[in-house]
Amino acid sequence: xxxxxxxxxxxxxxxxxxxxxxxxxxxxxxxxxxxxxxxxxxxxxxxxxxxxxxxxxxxxxxxxxxxxxxxxxxxxxxxxxxxxxxxxxxxxxxxxxxxxxxxxxxxxxxxxxxxxxxxxxxxxxxxxxxxxxxxxxxxxxxxxxxxxxxxxxxxxxxxxxxxxxxxxxxxxxxxxxxxxxxxxxxxxxxxxxxxxxxxxxxxxxxxxxxxxxxxxxxxxxxxxxx
Length: 226
Description:
Blueprint: H1 3-27, H2 33-54, H3 59-64, H4 70-76, H5 85-101, H6 103-107, H7 120-148, H8 162-190, H9 193-217
């Protein structure tokens, strides 16, 4: 896939992310679990499709993300995208914020159904998701460090195995995308539809916020819209 086509695909994906965020925001407090579930599934599918498209890219492009602003690459990216545990951190942050805001109601037994109203069983599953995701992040980081340190860089003929190195980078980046997708899917499974919608809105806010700030700071360099 040519870089121009990859950049265009990213912009289309990002436009779709904005649209999904708008729809989830509008529907998350509606008493329509079926509609919310459909929108949540659409969000996950949108990200899954993007991961599949990235798998076709030259790994160097995925890692350097030329369509992103310097702020995005420097502050928000880990192996070509957001760190998977960031989703869990967002979940805890939004849950804590909601819990504090509605504590008087909760003490009276009034349940909200949002992220401030997570059950003990849900919290246990979220903790397990975090621990498992941290371990898998560490494994991917070790694999990338081994590549960067040049382990296995020399082929049987004594020459630098460039194709082999690029292939290993691609495998690590594919693993990172797969972990991001697994973390998202598992979080959605744990949560009720309204809770999942709230989490995904927060995730979209984070990603869109980083992009808008980065483009503003760089003056919209190279016309990278989204």
